[in-house]
Design brief:
The protein is of the alpha/beta class and 457 residues long. It has helices at 2-6, 9-18, 78-81, 85-95, 114-124, 149-168, 195-216, 224-237, 258-271, 327-330, 336-340, 368-373, 377-380, 387-412, 415-419, 421-442; strands at 27-31, 34-39, 71-76, 103-106, 132-136, 172-176, 219-221, 277-284, 289-292, 296-302, 305-310, 342-348, 354-359, 362-367, 375-376, 446-454. A hairpin with a 2-residue loop joins strand 1 and strand 2.
Length: 457
């Protein structure tokens, strides 16, 4: 115990958590005469699945971290190499907040730990002069076994070294925690311990990652806690069965499908300080006037019909609501619509109790009170006038990110890179650039019409 106390304070906290101290709220704890705290802890749902976890409270998202023209590097292990949460992030930044003109590269590498990225970050990442980076490491660093302090220290040292190297290059950083596991990974022959023990290990690394972010003055993205809660509650919410399970952490217990990746993307996008306000459309039915927020141009308005041209898209997802391979389903597991995807329509001043709102080819009815409070068109109309253009952007993002995996893994670290790295970089960049240009071309202004008509009683 004395060796633990000699290290970073977080190891003391983790020791208390791992031996079942029962810490669940802000308070002080004394271990061998040393006072720990007071620290604030996450409020746990009233469910026995969470009894073994005692997590430090994650910081709230801070001010906007993005600056116009940022070059974002999305770094991580095989979960990043899946190119799912990274794709959601890039498509969101391109379509929903295009005013920032952020460009993206993803650097996922299967099986990687923090030491692996630290060794390759000069060659693969820093050579492209990123200005902003997200990190998501810890699943492999946990080594699929129960927590031990030596490995925790190893993870902390390497994660901190990555952050400091980015900071030395003037890169703003978001330190991400690992996610949770849904089952013991049968394909990891060296693994040991129960699922609970392995998730406690990941929870411990989550707190360590938070401590690194705090010490280094950078942002933190909590992936573990929202994913664990979704893993516990989503199956019941979506009527999962043995034949049709709902696996937030993925079929193999480690690699999520789309729903789990939405949870991850939500954590990182919120950590970037984005406020989620995509559109504010206000209509006064009494005075026959309308206003719109930045990113949208009012072409005309009259008699309840609004014609707009918009550069800012809502995040569009129209898949099934009850499948773990659906982005739309994943958007129900976290407050994605409320905090990242508000395409808000407000209408007041009318003389009817009910109205029909038509957006594109689809219509829905609302009370006057609902319209006065505001409705989120992105949530209410999963199929909308932006759907086709949004998919064009997303398809272009996918093509570019697929190439980036090939560029880094097969070329830079393959025979061509070993023979002449500078030439390999030049040749692959010449192929990547048209793919990046295709994303910019895919993002086009969208013309759309919103109609509000009184419903006769």
């Amino acid at each position: 115990m004395k060796s633990l106390l000699a290290g970073n304070w977080i190891y003391c906290l983790l020791f208390c958590s791992l031996v079942g101290s029962g810490l669940t709220s802000c308070g002080q704890t004394v271990v061998e005469g040393v006072t720990l705290g007071p620290y604030e802890y996450e409020t746990k749902p009233d469910d026995p699945a969470f009894a073994i976890f005692n997590l430090r409270k994650a910081p709230q998202p801070g001010d906007l971290l993005i600056r116009p023209g940022d070059r974002l590097a999305i770094c991580g292990d095989s979960i990043t190499e899946q190119k799912m949460y990274s794709r959601i992030i890039e498509t969101y930044l391109t379509a929903c907040v295009p005013q920032y003109e952020v460009t993206v590269r993803q650097y996922g590498w299967s099986g990687e730990k923090t030491d692996g990225f630290l060794r390759r970050m000069d060659q693969d990442c820093l050579r492209f002069d990123p200005t902003l980076a997200t990190l998501c490491y810890g699943m492999n660093d946990a080594r699929y076994r129960p927590y031990d302090a030596t490995n925790g220290r190893w993870y902390e040292d390497h994660y901190r070294a990555i952050v400091r190297k980015f900071k030395q290059a003037d890169v703003r950083v978001v330190v991400g925690s690992p996610g949770c596991m849904g089952k013991v990974a049968s394909w990891v022959s060296s693994g040991s311990g129960t699922l609970d023990q392995q998730n406690i290990n990941l929870c411990a690394l989550r707190d360590i990652a938070m401590g690194v972010a705090e010490d280094e003055g950078v942002a933190f993205a909590d992936v573990f806690w929202p994913m664990l809660q979704a893993q516990v509650f989503a199956p019941g919410q979506h009527q999962a069965t043995k034949e049709q399970p709902y696996n937030v952490a993925g079929r193999d217990g480690v690699h999520p499908d789309w729903a789990g990746h939405v949870v991850m993307a939500y954590a990182f996008l919120r950590s970037l300080g984005l406020d989620g306000s995509i559109a504010e459309i206000n209509i006064d039915l009494g005075t026959n006037t309308a206003t719109v927020s930045d990113g949208h141009t009012l072409q005309s308005y009259g008699n309840g019909t609004l014609r707009l041209v918009s550069d800012r898209y809502p995040f569009c997802a129209d898949g099934p609501i009850d499948r773990d391979n659906s982005i739309r389903s994943g958007m129900t597991l976290v407050p994605f619509y409320e905090e990242l995807n508000r395409f808000q329509l407000t209408a007041t001043g009318g003389d009817s109790d009910r109205y029909k709102v038509t957006w594109g080819e689809h219509s829905r009815e609302y009370s006057a009170d609902e319209l006065a409070a505001g409705i989120n068109l992105a949530k209410e109309f999963p199929q909308n006038p932006f759907s086709k253009a949004f998919q064009e952007v997303d398809s272009a993002v996918k093509a570019k990110q697929d190439f980036e995996t090939h560029q880094i893994k097969q070329v830079f670290h393959g025979e061509r890179g070993r023979d002449n790295l500078q030439q390999a970089v030049a040749e692959t960049e010449a192929k990547r650039q048209p793919l990046a240009d295709s994303i910019a071309r895919a993002h086009v202004p969208v013309e759309h019409t919103i109609t509000i008509a009184a419903v006769e009683q």
